[in-house]
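Collaborator request, handled under Task 6.
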Amino acid sequence: MSVNKLILGDNFEILKAMESETVDLIYLDPPFFSNRNYEVIWGDEGEVRSFRDRWAGGIDHYITWLKERVVEMHRVLKPTGSIFLHCDWHANAYIRVEILDKVFGASNFRNEIVWCYRGGGASKMDFGRRHDTIFRYGKSPQHIFNADAIRIPYQAEGMGRKDDAMWGKHKGTDKVYKPNPLGKIPEDWWLINALNANDPERIGYPTQKPTELLERIIKCASNEGDVVLDPFAGGGTTVAVADKLNRKWIGIDQSVQAIKVAELRLHRQTDLFTSIYANSYALQLHKYDYDTLRHANAFEFESWIVHQLGGTSNTRQHGDFGLDGKMPDNTPIQVKRSDNIGRNVIDNFFAAVQRSDKKLFAKNVAEKKPVGYIIAFSFGKGAVEEAARLKLKESVTIELVPVDKIVPVAKKPAVTVEVNELSRDTKGFHEIEFIAVGQSEVGIEFYSWDFAYNAEKGFRASVIIDRDGKQQAKLKAGYHNIAVKVVDNDGLEGLEVIKLKVNGMVRVE
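Structure tokens returned to the collaborator:
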């Protein structure tokens, strides 16, 4: 399992595929055992399916659903690692006793952290519920805890006295206690404001957690370069904060929208161009965009698709007989980033596999195994017929492997934009309406807008989530580049850039 990766899918299946003891810190904020309608945030197919799974029964079913995932989290956690499980009053007692104490062991319980926040509205019959619970467990007594990284002023969070009134000789001893210049270690209750509706951190995700909360958790329980895992990525706060703090990270979510929103947040805070091949950051969806794959950098695509087939790419550029990789048994692989591959490719590959390793070629023929694999987007009639002739007449099997048999491929959505001038004021500002219409065979999830688009820096969302595709903006005279992204139900995206000239009138160029 590579790191710095956003993965769309069921976290239980993905966790089971991860290697043991590879993660340093896990933070999870699973769906609470609360009002059912409130739990469906994005409303897309993956989230609704997950919702049905965990609500098929009562509390026992919910605890079973969560426990099987926590068991896998315990397995992938390093001995020095910690888990922080975020929950609330609906099920926190069950989660501690039935899951965490049993999976991690009661002796590895470290803290019950109470996250306190303010909010409006309260019942006249009860005290206002204004806190969540975060259980902290270590996998072993050797867990990481960086006290100095999270110290706070002694009067922080509304408590404490002046420093000079707190310190002095301990009664009955000659020891003098002085305050740590870095501050104190926080208590197990944290007064960190929840995000209000107008907070600049807000991205439109109703249960979004503040970055300050995740910063404290990540700083205390991991070091730079460590791996942070969030198996319920949600709005992407954990991966965004981990990335800022120079940690490696893995974010998993069942929802297309959650994964794409997390991706947009990462784009907004970094200067990195990313792709499905990049070492710095990868996105794993159910399907891949044909155009992105078909027109990608040839060498990067070769290495990536060979790995997806289960092979190892060839790092040499010369003297390799035109071969691009090999399977674990050294059987050659060739990649053609093209459609409608012709017979000449088969002829050349047939000659190359014999020259590259005569003994292996003879062995594969004798054992009726493929002598090689050719990967391409599609194969022409001549190539298919020649591969069939070789197998029938010469007992030589050359496997022709379409890309979409290795990874699922789909066409990205298209988007068009209508521009309407609504009004202008005496200061020369024009109020302009933008209406985006996306087209996709699988349906549209949401739109995202960049009102200061710079092609060199890439798409930086000014508005991350727009479900209707309608926006208004006040623009002054001059040239403006506005970009809109449309995301479909497969997580694929289309981009349209509108170049506007505003000078007395609004003109799309």
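The cover message to the collaborator said: "Residues 157-165, 272-279 have pLDDT under 50 and may be disordered. The chain has three domains: 20-151+186-223, 292-406, 411-508. Please let us know whether this matches your experimental observations."
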